[in-house]
Write a structure and sequence with these properties.
Structural class: mainly beta
CATH architecture of the largest domain: Beta Barrel
CATH topology of the largest domain: Outer membrane phospholipase (ompla), Chain C
Helix content: under 10%
Strand content: over 45%
Largest sheet: 25 strands, mixed
Amino acid sequence: MNMLLRGCAAALLPALLLLDARAQLTGGQLHGNFSTDAQYYNEDEDIGAVVLPEKMGLNSWLNLIYSTEQFETGIRLEAYEPRLAGYPAGQPYLGSGIGYRYAKYKLSDLEVTGGNFFEQFGQGLIFRSYEERYLGVDNAMDGLRVKYRPYRGVYLKGVIGKQRFGFDNGLVNGAGLVRGFDAEVDLRELLDSAWTCAGSLVLGGSFVSKFQEDRDPLLELPQNVGAYAFRANLITERWNIYAEYAYKINDPNGKNGFIYKPGQAAMFNATYSVKGFGLSLGTHSFDNMFFQSDRAAPTPFDLNINFLPPLTKQHTYNLPATLYPYATQPNGEVSAQGEVFYKWKKGTRLGGKYGTKVAVNFSTAYSLDTTRLGVADDTTARLGYRSRLFGMGDRNYFQDFNVEIRKKVSADWEFALTYLNLVYDIDIIQGKPGKPTVYADIVIVEGLHNFNDRHSLRFELQHLRSGQDHGNWATALAELTFSPHWFIAAMDQYNYIGDSGLEEKNGLEQTHYPIGSVGYIRGGNRFQVNYGRQRAGIFCVGGVCRQVPAANGLTLSITSTF
Protein backbone atom coordinates (compact mmCIF):
# COMPACT_ATOMS: atom_id res chain seq x y z
CA MET A 1 0.00 0.00 0.00
CA ASN A 2 2.86 2.41 0.79
CA MET A 3 4.37 1.86 -2.67
CA LEU A 4 1.01 2.61 -4.25
CA LEU A 5 0.63 5.82 -2.25
CA ARG A 6 4.13 6.98 -3.15
CA GLY A 7 3.38 6.38 -6.82
CA CYS A 8 0.13 8.30 -6.60
CA ALA A 9 1.84 11.23 -4.89
CA ALA A 10 4.03 11.92 -7.91
CA ALA A 11 0.95 12.53 -10.03
CA LEU A 12 -1.10 14.31 -7.40
CA LEU A 13 0.05 17.90 -8.04
CA PRO A 14 -0.92 18.07 -11.73
CA ALA A 15 -4.14 16.30 -10.83
CA LEU A 16 -4.94 19.02 -8.30
CA LEU A 17 -4.36 21.72 -10.89
CA LEU A 18 -6.60 19.92 -13.34
CA LEU A 19 -9.30 19.54 -10.72
CA ASP A 20 -9.11 23.26 -9.98
CA ALA A 21 -9.67 24.05 -13.66
CA ARG A 22 -12.85 21.95 -13.54
CA ALA A 23 -14.00 23.39 -10.21
CA GLN A 24 -16.75 25.43 -11.89
CA LEU A 25 -18.28 22.23 -13.21
CA THR A 26 -17.86 19.97 -10.18
CA GLY A 27 -18.42 22.44 -7.34
CA GLY A 28 -15.02 21.61 -5.83
CA GLN A 29 -12.64 24.06 -4.17
CA LEU A 30 -8.86 24.41 -4.14
CA HIS A 31 -7.39 26.08 -1.06
CA GLY A 32 -4.27 25.93 1.08
CA ASN A 33 -1.52 27.89 2.77
CA PHE A 34 2.15 28.75 2.43
CA SER A 35 4.81 29.61 4.99
CA THR A 36 8.53 30.17 4.84
CA ASP A 37 11.27 31.14 7.30
CA ALA A 38 14.61 32.25 5.90
CA GLN A 39 17.57 33.31 8.03
CA TYR A 40 20.93 34.82 7.09
CA TYR A 41 23.61 34.08 9.71
CA ASN A 42 26.35 36.46 10.84
CA GLU A 43 29.50 35.64 12.76
CA ASP A 44 29.24 36.60 16.45
CA GLU A 45 31.90 35.15 18.72
CA ASP A 46 30.56 36.96 21.80
CA ILE A 47 27.46 34.73 21.92
CA GLY A 48 28.86 31.64 20.14
CA ALA A 49 26.52 32.13 17.20
CA VAL A 50 26.00 29.21 14.84
CA VAL A 51 26.76 29.97 11.19
CA LEU A 52 25.75 27.49 8.49
CA PRO A 53 28.32 26.78 5.73
CA GLU A 54 25.80 28.17 3.22
CA LYS A 55 25.38 31.33 5.40
CA MET A 56 21.61 31.03 4.99
CA GLY A 57 18.91 28.56 6.03
CA LEU A 58 15.41 28.11 4.64
CA ASN A 59 12.36 26.16 5.83
CA SER A 60 9.28 26.30 3.57
CA TRP A 61 5.90 24.56 3.40
CA LEU A 62 3.12 24.73 0.80
CA ASN A 63 -0.21 22.95 1.41
CA LEU A 64 -2.65 22.35 -1.45
CA ILE A 65 -6.08 20.89 -0.66
CA TYR A 66 -8.84 20.11 -3.13
CA SER A 67 -12.26 19.26 -1.69
CA THR A 68 -15.81 18.51 -2.75
CA GLU A 69 -18.78 17.62 -0.59
CA GLN A 70 -17.67 14.00 -0.14
CA PHE A 71 -14.05 13.92 -1.33
CA GLU A 72 -10.80 15.62 -0.28
CA THR A 73 -7.19 15.22 -1.35
CA GLY A 74 -4.05 17.19 -0.62
CA ILE A 75 -0.29 17.40 -0.59
CA ARG A 76 2.34 19.34 1.30
CA LEU A 77 5.49 20.43 -0.52
CA GLU A 78 8.44 21.02 1.80
CA ALA A 79 11.86 22.60 1.28
CA TYR A 80 14.88 22.68 3.61
CA GLU A 81 17.58 24.38 1.53
CA PRO A 82 19.26 23.94 3.95
CA ARG A 83 17.24 23.66 7.16
CA LEU A 84 17.51 26.39 9.78
CA ALA A 85 20.19 25.89 12.44
CA GLY A 86 18.95 23.64 15.25
CA TYR A 87 15.94 22.42 13.28
CA PRO A 88 14.20 20.00 13.66
CA ALA A 89 13.99 18.42 17.11
CA GLY A 90 14.81 14.91 15.84
CA GLN A 91 16.01 13.31 12.61
CA PRO A 92 17.57 15.91 10.21
CA TYR A 93 15.55 17.21 7.25
CA LEU A 94 17.25 17.54 3.86
CA GLY A 95 16.29 18.87 0.42
CA SER A 96 12.89 19.44 -1.16
CA GLY A 97 9.94 17.25 -2.05
CA ILE A 98 6.55 15.95 -0.97
CA GLY A 99 6.35 15.34 2.77
CA TYR A 100 2.63 14.74 3.22
CA ARG A 101 -0.12 13.50 0.85
CA TYR A 102 -3.53 11.99 1.34
CA ALA A 103 -6.94 11.26 -0.15
CA LYS A 104 -10.14 11.11 1.91
CA TYR A 105 -13.78 10.45 1.20
CA LYS A 106 -16.89 10.48 3.36
CA LEU A 107 -20.07 8.54 2.60
CA SER A 108 -22.91 8.70 5.10
CA ASP A 109 -21.37 7.77 8.49
CA LEU A 110 -18.18 6.25 7.03
CA GLU A 111 -14.93 8.19 6.47
CA VAL A 112 -11.83 6.63 4.86
CA THR A 113 -8.38 8.25 4.58
CA GLY A 114 -5.46 6.84 2.63
CA GLY A 115 -1.93 8.26 2.85
CA ASN A 116 -0.82 10.63 5.59
CA PHE A 117 -3.02 11.68 8.47
CA PHE A 118 -2.96 12.92 12.06
CA GLU A 119 -5.07 11.27 14.75
CA GLN A 120 -5.38 10.95 18.51
CA PHE A 121 -7.03 8.51 20.91
CA GLY A 122 -8.21 10.14 24.14
CA GLN A 123 -5.52 12.43 25.54
CA GLY A 124 -2.87 10.57 23.56
CA LEU A 125 -1.45 8.36 26.32
CA ILE A 126 -1.07 5.44 23.89
CA PHE A 127 -1.60 7.11 20.50
CA ARG A 128 -1.21 10.60 19.12
CA SER A 129 -0.08 11.39 15.59
CA TYR A 130 0.49 15.13 15.36
CA GLU A 131 2.64 17.96 14.05
CA GLU A 132 4.28 20.92 15.77
CA ARG A 133 5.84 22.47 12.71
CA TYR A 134 7.99 25.16 14.33
CA LEU A 135 9.22 22.70 16.93
CA GLY A 136 10.16 20.24 14.20
CA VAL A 137 8.05 17.35 15.49
CA ASP A 138 6.04 15.40 12.90
CA ASN A 139 5.08 11.75 13.38
CA ALA A 140 2.35 11.68 10.73
CA MET A 141 0.93 8.26 9.99
CA ASP A 142 1.30 6.89 6.47
CA GLY A 143 -1.28 4.21 5.78
CA LEU A 144 -5.04 3.86 6.24
CA ARG A 145 -7.58 5.33 8.67
CA VAL A 146 -11.26 4.40 8.93
CA LYS A 147 -13.88 6.26 11.01
CA TYR A 148 -17.41 4.94 11.41
CA ARG A 149 -20.49 5.89 13.41
CA PRO A 150 -22.68 2.75 13.43
CA TYR A 151 -25.28 4.34 15.72
CA ARG A 152 -25.88 7.74 17.28
CA GLY A 153 -23.38 8.41 20.06
CA VAL A 154 -21.06 5.55 19.03
CA TYR A 155 -17.78 6.48 17.32
CA LEU A 156 -15.22 3.98 16.02
CA LYS A 157 -11.72 4.56 14.61
CA GLY A 158 -9.14 2.23 13.15
CA VAL A 159 -5.60 3.07 11.94
CA ILE A 160 -2.70 1.17 10.42
CA GLY A 161 0.54 2.36 8.89
CA LYS A 162 4.06 3.58 9.48
CA GLN A 163 5.21 6.86 10.98
CA ARG A 164 7.10 9.74 9.43
CA PHE A 165 10.70 9.48 10.56
CA GLY A 166 12.45 12.21 8.60
CA PHE A 167 12.70 14.05 5.32
CA ASP A 168 15.29 13.44 2.58
CA ASN A 169 14.02 15.07 -0.62
CA GLY A 170 10.69 13.55 0.36
CA LEU A 171 8.93 11.61 3.08
CA VAL A 172 10.99 8.99 4.98
CA ASN A 173 9.08 6.49 7.15
CA GLY A 174 10.28 4.50 10.14
CA ALA A 175 10.66 0.73 10.22
CA GLY A 176 7.90 -0.16 12.70
CA LEU A 177 4.26 -0.82 11.83
CA VAL A 178 1.59 0.80 14.05
CA ARG A 179 -1.97 -0.52 14.38
CA GLY A 180 -4.73 0.87 16.55
CA PHE A 181 -8.45 0.86 17.33
CA ASP A 182 -10.52 3.30 19.37
CA ALA A 183 -14.17 3.26 20.46
CA GLU A 184 -16.07 6.07 22.14
CA VAL A 185 -19.65 6.22 23.41
CA ASP A 186 -21.50 9.41 24.31
CA LEU A 187 -24.26 8.15 26.60
CA ARG A 188 -26.30 11.33 26.25
CA GLU A 189 -26.44 10.92 22.48
CA LEU A 190 -26.88 7.15 22.64
CA LEU A 191 -29.79 7.13 25.11
CA ASP A 192 -31.39 10.30 23.71
CA SER A 193 -34.60 11.06 25.63
CA ALA A 194 -33.90 8.23 28.10
CA TRP A 195 -30.87 10.18 29.39
CA THR A 196 -32.20 12.23 32.31
CA CYS A 197 -28.95 13.31 33.98
CA ALA A 198 -27.58 16.82 33.70
CA GLY A 199 -24.69 17.07 31.26
CA SER A 200 -23.18 14.11 29.44
CA LEU A 201 -20.89 11.14 30.10
CA VAL A 202 -18.43 9.98 27.42
CA LEU A 203 -16.68 6.61 27.78
CA GLY A 204 -13.85 5.40 25.60
CA GLY A 205 -11.30 2.64 25.13
CA SER A 206 -8.28 2.11 22.85
CA PHE A 207 -5.82 -0.56 21.83
CA VAL A 208 -2.58 0.11 19.95
CA SER A 209 0.23 -2.23 18.94
CA LYS A 210 3.48 -1.85 17.08
CA PHE A 211 5.39 -4.48 15.13
CA GLN A 212 9.13 -4.42 14.62
CA GLU A 213 11.28 -7.40 13.69
CA ASP A 214 13.68 -8.65 16.36
CA ARG A 215 17.25 -8.65 15.03
CA ASP A 216 19.06 -8.35 18.35
CA PRO A 217 21.83 -11.00 18.61
CA LEU A 218 21.84 -11.03 22.41
CA LEU A 219 18.29 -10.38 23.65
CA GLU A 220 14.96 -11.91 22.77
CA LEU A 221 12.83 -8.80 22.12
CA PRO A 222 9.03 -8.73 21.70
CA GLN A 223 8.19 -8.06 18.07
CA ASN A 224 4.59 -7.06 18.87
CA VAL A 225 4.14 -4.58 21.71
CA GLY A 226 0.59 -3.73 22.73
CA ALA A 227 -0.93 -0.99 24.86
CA TYR A 228 -4.49 -0.30 25.97
CA ALA A 229 -6.28 2.61 27.63
CA PHE A 230 -9.65 3.44 29.17
CA ARG A 231 -11.13 6.91 29.73
CA ALA A 232 -14.20 8.68 31.05
CA ASN A 233 -15.28 12.30 30.65
CA LEU A 234 -18.17 13.83 32.63
CA ILE A 235 -19.35 17.21 31.29
CA THR A 236 -21.96 19.36 33.00
CA GLU A 237 -22.81 23.04 32.86
CA ARG A 238 -20.16 23.85 35.47
CA TRP A 239 -17.94 20.76 35.71
CA ASN A 240 -15.63 18.94 33.32
CA ILE A 241 -14.04 15.84 34.89
CA TYR A 242 -11.69 13.62 32.87
CA ALA A 243 -9.80 10.45 33.82
CA GLU A 244 -7.69 8.06 31.73
CA TYR A 245 -5.54 5.01 32.48
CA ALA A 246 -3.08 3.33 30.10
CA TYR A 247 -1.03 0.13 30.28
CA LYS A 248 1.82 -0.95 27.96
CA ILE A 249 3.34 -4.42 27.97
CA ASN A 250 7.10 -4.87 28.31
CA ASP A 251 8.86 -2.83 25.64
CA PRO A 252 12.67 -3.05 25.88
CA ASN A 253 14.11 -0.04 24.06
CA GLY A 254 17.03 2.34 23.95
CA LYS A 255 15.33 4.89 26.23
CA ASN A 256 14.71 2.56 29.18
CA GLY A 257 17.94 0.55 29.03
CA PHE A 258 16.24 -2.46 27.35
CA ILE A 259 14.41 -3.57 30.48
CA TYR A 260 11.32 -5.83 30.35
CA LYS A 261 9.14 -3.88 32.79
CA PRO A 262 5.59 -2.96 31.66
CA GLY A 263 4.62 0.71 31.51
CA GLN A 264 1.66 2.56 33.05
CA ALA A 265 0.13 6.01 32.91
CA ALA A 266 -2.80 7.62 34.69
CA MET A 267 -4.21 11.13 34.62
CA PHE A 268 -7.07 13.00 36.27
CA ASN A 269 -8.27 16.54 35.51
CA ALA A 270 -11.22 18.48 36.87
CA THR A 271 -12.38 22.01 36.06
CA TYR A 272 -15.19 24.07 37.56
CA SER A 273 -16.34 27.38 36.10
CA VAL A 274 -19.07 29.96 36.62
CA LYS A 275 -19.15 33.59 35.57
CA GLY A 276 -16.19 35.33 37.17
CA PHE A 277 -14.70 32.22 38.82
CA GLY A 278 -12.79 29.19 37.62
CA LEU A 279 -10.98 26.30 39.34
CA SER A 280 -8.89 23.51 37.83
CA LEU A 281 -7.10 20.59 39.47
CA GLY A 282 -5.06 17.88 37.86
CA THR A 283 -2.63 15.08 38.58
CA HIS A 284 -0.87 12.42 36.55
CA SER A 285 1.77 9.74 36.84
CA PHE A 286 3.91 8.19 34.09
CA ASP A 287 6.04 5.07 34.47
CA ASN A 288 8.20 3.63 31.66
CA MET A 289 5.96 5.16 28.96
CA PHE A 290 8.38 5.85 26.12
CA PHE A 291 6.48 4.28 23.20
CA GLN A 292 8.26 4.54 19.85
CA SER A 293 7.72 2.47 16.71
CA ASP A 294 11.49 1.92 16.47
CA ARG A 295 13.04 0.61 19.70
CA ALA A 296 16.37 2.09 18.58
CA ALA A 297 15.02 5.53 17.59
CA PRO A 298 18.01 7.93 17.63
CA THR A 299 16.38 10.69 19.73
CA PRO A 300 13.39 11.06 22.09
CA PHE A 301 11.65 13.14 19.39
CA ASP A 302 11.57 10.47 16.67
CA LEU A 303 8.74 8.02 15.95
CA ASN A 304 6.76 8.58 19.14
CA ILE A 305 3.47 6.67 19.06
CA ASN A 306 2.07 8.41 22.13
CA PHE A 307 2.02 11.85 23.75
CA LEU A 308 2.27 12.51 27.48
CA PRO A 309 0.75 15.94 28.24
CA PRO A 310 2.51 18.09 30.85
CA LEU A 311 0.78 19.45 33.93
CA THR A 312 2.42 22.87 33.95
CA LYS A 313 1.27 26.30 32.88
CA GLN A 314 2.27 27.09 29.30
CA HIS A 315 3.77 30.55 29.73
CA THR A 316 3.81 33.01 26.83
CA TYR A 317 6.23 35.57 28.28
CA ASN A 318 9.75 35.27 26.93
CA LEU A 319 11.84 34.54 30.05
CA PRO A 320 9.74 31.78 31.67
CA ALA A 321 8.76 30.29 28.30
CA THR A 322 12.25 29.94 26.82
CA LEU A 323 14.73 29.73 29.71
CA TYR A 324 13.23 27.14 32.06
CA PRO A 325 10.18 25.39 30.55
CA TYR A 326 9.31 21.89 31.69
CA ALA A 327 9.59 18.84 29.45
CA THR A 328 7.61 15.69 30.34
CA GLN A 329 9.69 12.79 31.68
CA PRO A 330 8.19 9.62 30.11
CA ASN A 331 10.35 7.18 32.07
CA GLY A 332 8.90 8.31 35.38
CA GLU A 333 7.25 11.30 37.01
CA VAL A 334 4.41 12.29 39.36
CA SER A 335 2.88 15.71 38.70
CA ALA A 336 0.09 17.90 40.02
CA GLN A 337 -1.34 21.29 39.12
CA GLY A 338 -3.99 23.62 40.50
CA GLU A 339 -5.25 26.99 39.32
CA VAL A 340 -7.82 29.48 40.61
CA PHE A 341 -9.21 32.35 38.54
CA TYR A 342 -11.38 35.13 39.94
CA LYS A 343 -12.73 38.39 38.54
CA TRP A 344 -13.83 41.16 40.86
CA LYS A 345 -16.88 42.79 39.32
CA LYS A 346 -17.05 46.33 38.06
CA GLY A 347 -18.07 48.83 40.73
CA THR A 348 -16.72 46.82 43.69
CA ARG A 349 -13.89 48.06 45.93
CA LEU A 350 -11.29 45.76 44.33
CA GLY A 351 -12.90 45.68 40.91
CA GLY A 352 -13.04 49.44 40.40
CA LYS A 353 -14.55 50.92 37.28
CA TYR A 354 -13.46 48.14 34.90
CA GLY A 355 -13.07 45.03 37.06
CA THR A 356 -9.93 43.14 38.14
CA LYS A 357 -8.79 39.63 37.14
CA VAL A 358 -6.54 37.44 39.29
CA ALA A 359 -5.14 33.97 38.49
CA VAL A 360 -3.07 31.86 40.90
CA ASN A 361 -1.36 28.73 39.59
CA PHE A 362 0.82 26.07 41.19
CA SER A 363 2.36 23.03 39.52
CA THR A 364 5.02 20.54 40.53
CA ALA A 365 6.68 17.41 39.16
CA TYR A 366 8.59 14.79 41.17
CA SER A 367 10.51 11.66 40.37
CA LEU A 368 8.81 8.29 40.64
CA ASP A 369 9.67 6.27 43.74
CA THR A 370 11.48 3.16 42.48
CA THR A 371 13.36 0.17 43.89
CA ARG A 372 16.09 -1.19 41.62
CA LEU A 373 15.99 -4.96 41.05
CA GLY A 374 18.58 -7.58 40.29
CA VAL A 375 21.70 -6.28 41.99
CA ALA A 376 22.94 -9.89 42.24
CA ASP A 377 20.49 -11.57 39.88
CA ASP A 378 20.64 -11.06 36.11
CA THR A 379 17.10 -12.44 35.68
CA THR A 380 15.34 -9.82 37.82
CA ALA A 381 17.80 -7.16 36.61
CA ARG A 382 16.01 -7.36 33.25
CA LEU A 383 12.85 -6.09 34.99
CA GLY A 384 14.76 -2.95 35.91
CA TYR A 385 12.94 -1.71 38.98
CA ARG A 386 9.78 -1.96 41.08
CA SER A 387 7.39 1.01 41.35
CA ARG A 388 3.77 2.05 41.78
CA LEU A 389 1.77 4.78 40.09
CA PHE A 390 1.64 8.05 42.04
CA GLY A 391 4.46 6.81 44.29
CA MET A 392 6.33 10.08 44.68
CA GLY A 393 10.12 10.02 44.86
CA ASP A 394 12.44 12.41 46.67
CA ARG A 395 13.67 14.41 43.67
CA ASN A 396 11.74 17.57 42.74
CA TYR A 397 12.12 17.98 38.98
CA PHE A 398 10.07 21.16 38.65
CA GLN A 399 7.94 23.59 40.61
CA ASP A 400 6.16 26.73 39.43
CA PHE A 401 4.14 29.09 41.62
CA ASN A 402 2.77 32.09 39.75
CA VAL A 403 0.28 34.90 40.31
CA GLU A 404 -1.13 37.13 37.58
CA ILE A 405 -3.19 40.30 38.10
CA ARG A 406 -4.83 42.05 35.13
CA LYS A 407 -6.41 45.46 35.48
CA LYS A 408 -7.87 48.00 33.07
CA VAL A 409 -7.30 51.39 34.73
CA SER A 410 -8.83 53.68 32.10
CA ALA A 411 -10.39 53.61 28.65
CA ASP A 412 -6.88 53.73 27.16
CA TRP A 413 -4.66 51.80 29.58
CA GLU A 414 -4.51 48.18 30.73
CA PHE A 415 -1.81 46.54 32.87
CA ALA A 416 -0.80 43.03 33.95
CA LEU A 417 1.55 42.13 36.80
CA THR A 418 2.94 38.57 37.05
CA TYR A 419 5.18 36.93 39.64
CA LEU A 420 6.74 33.48 39.25
CA ASN A 421 8.81 31.35 41.60
CA LEU A 422 10.54 28.44 39.84
CA VAL A 423 12.44 25.33 40.92
CA TYR A 424 14.09 23.68 37.91
CA ASP A 425 16.23 20.52 37.91
CA ILE A 426 18.31 21.42 34.87
CA ASP A 427 20.30 18.17 35.19
CA ILE A 428 17.23 16.01 34.46
CA ILE A 429 15.08 18.30 32.30
CA GLN A 430 17.77 19.60 29.94
CA GLY A 431 20.23 16.73 30.34
CA LYS A 432 23.08 18.74 31.87
CA PRO A 433 24.71 16.33 34.35
CA GLY A 434 26.21 17.87 37.44
CA LYS A 435 24.49 21.24 37.03
CA PRO A 436 22.81 22.48 40.23
CA THR A 437 19.05 22.90 40.52
CA VAL A 438 17.95 26.39 39.42
CA TYR A 439 15.95 28.55 41.83
CA ALA A 440 14.52 31.63 40.14
CA ASP A 441 12.14 34.53 40.81
CA ILE A 442 10.58 36.32 37.84
CA VAL A 443 8.62 39.58 37.82
CA ILE A 444 6.81 40.75 34.68
CA VAL A 445 4.96 44.01 33.99
CA GLU A 446 2.90 44.27 30.82
CA GLY A 447 1.12 47.40 29.61
CA LEU A 448 -1.22 48.20 26.73
CA HIS A 449 -2.11 51.72 25.60
CA ASN A 450 -4.70 52.31 22.90
CA PHE A 451 -4.14 55.67 21.19
CA ASN A 452 -7.30 55.14 19.16
CA ASP A 453 -9.18 52.30 17.47
CA ARG A 454 -6.29 51.68 15.04
CA HIS A 455 -3.06 52.43 16.89
CA SER A 456 -1.75 50.85 20.11
CA LEU A 457 1.45 50.38 22.08
CA ARG A 458 2.19 47.25 24.10
CA PHE A 459 5.26 46.85 26.30
CA GLU A 460 6.78 44.24 28.63
CA LEU A 461 9.41 44.55 31.34
CA GLN A 462 10.69 41.21 32.65
CA HIS A 463 13.31 40.36 35.26
CA LEU A 464 14.64 36.96 36.35
CA ARG A 465 16.84 36.62 39.43
CA SER A 466 18.80 33.41 40.03
CA GLY A 467 22.02 32.35 41.70
CA GLN A 468 22.47 29.36 39.37
CA ASP A 469 23.00 28.64 35.67
CA HIS A 470 23.45 31.97 33.81
CA GLY A 471 22.35 34.18 36.69
CA ASN A 472 20.11 37.21 36.22
CA TRP A 473 18.22 38.26 33.09
CA ALA A 474 16.27 41.38 32.13
CA THR A 475 14.04 41.75 29.09
CA ALA A 476 12.38 44.85 27.64
CA LEU A 477 9.90 44.70 24.76
CA ALA A 478 7.89 47.38 22.95
CA GLU A 479 5.44 46.74 20.11
CA LEU A 480 3.69 49.50 18.16
CA THR A 481 0.71 48.49 16.02
CA PHE A 482 -0.77 50.52 13.16
CA SER A 483 -3.94 48.61 12.31
CA PRO A 484 -4.78 46.98 10.08
CA HIS A 485 -1.45 46.54 8.27
CA TRP A 486 1.76 47.45 10.13
CA PHE A 487 3.55 46.68 13.38
CA ILE A 488 7.04 47.50 14.69
CA ALA A 489 8.70 45.81 17.66
CA ALA A 490 12.01 46.01 19.51
CA MET A 491 13.31 43.74 22.26
CA ASP A 492 16.50 43.47 24.28
CA GLN A 493 17.46 40.60 26.59
CA TYR A 494 20.27 41.38 29.00
CA ASN A 495 22.15 38.63 30.83
CA TYR A 496 23.97 40.63 33.51
CA ILE A 497 24.82 37.81 35.98
CA GLY A 498 24.24 39.93 39.12
CA ASP A 499 26.10 39.50 42.42
CA SER A 500 25.84 35.71 42.53
CA GLY A 501 29.53 35.08 41.83
CA LEU A 502 28.64 33.06 38.70
CA GLU A 503 30.69 35.35 36.46
CA GLU A 504 33.94 34.49 38.19
CA LYS A 505 32.99 30.83 38.74
CA ASN A 506 31.80 30.00 35.19
CA GLY A 507 33.56 32.65 33.12
CA LEU A 508 30.25 34.24 32.14
CA GLU A 509 30.07 37.71 30.62
CA GLN A 510 27.37 40.35 30.62
CA THR A 511 25.64 40.17 27.25
CA HIS A 512 22.89 42.01 25.39
CA TYR A 513 20.62 40.28 22.85
CA PRO A 514 18.86 43.10 20.93
CA ILE A 515 16.46 42.35 18.08
CA GLY A 516 14.10 44.49 15.99
CA SER A 517 11.04 43.45 13.94
CA VAL A 518 8.86 44.99 11.26
CA GLY A 519 5.67 43.31 10.06
CA TYR A 520 3.06 43.91 7.38
CA ILE A 521 -0.34 42.18 7.15
CA ARG A 522 -2.73 42.39 4.25
CA GLY A 523 -5.59 40.01 3.59
CA GLY A 524 -4.34 36.46 4.06
CA ASN A 525 -0.67 37.47 3.77
CA ARG A 526 1.74 38.28 6.59
CA PHE A 527 5.35 39.43 6.20
CA GLN A 528 7.85 39.90 9.03
CA VAL A 529 11.54 40.86 9.06
CA ASN A 530 13.73 40.50 12.16
CA TYR A 531 17.32 41.55 12.65
CA GLY A 532 19.49 41.01 15.73
CA ARG A 533 20.71 38.41 18.18
CA GLN A 534 18.95 35.24 19.24
CA ARG A 535 20.21 33.66 22.44
CA ALA A 536 20.64 29.92 22.88
CA GLY A 537 17.68 28.47 24.74
CA ILE A 538 14.78 26.05 24.82
CA PHE A 539 11.72 26.14 22.57
CA CYS A 540 8.76 24.13 23.90
CA VAL A 541 5.25 23.29 22.78
CA GLY A 542 3.02 21.18 25.04
CA GLY A 543 5.82 19.78 27.14
CA VAL A 544 7.98 18.77 24.15
CA CYS A 545 11.13 20.88 23.80
CA ARG A 546 14.13 21.36 21.52
CA GLN A 547 17.36 23.30 21.87
CA VAL A 548 17.67 26.50 19.84
CA PRO A 549 21.27 27.62 19.13
CA ALA A 550 22.54 31.17 19.49
CA ALA A 551 22.37 33.15 16.26
CA ASN A 552 22.93 36.62 14.84
CA GLY A 553 21.44 37.76 11.56
CA LEU A 554 18.46 38.65 9.42
CA THR A 555 15.24 36.61 9.38
CA LEU A 556 12.36 36.81 6.90
CA SER A 557 9.02 35.09 7.57
CA ILE A 558 6.09 34.90 5.16
CA THR A 559 2.73 33.22 5.73
CA SER A 560 -0.15 33.16 3.29
CA THR A 561 -3.59 31.55 3.24
CA PHE A 562 -5.77 31.20 0.18
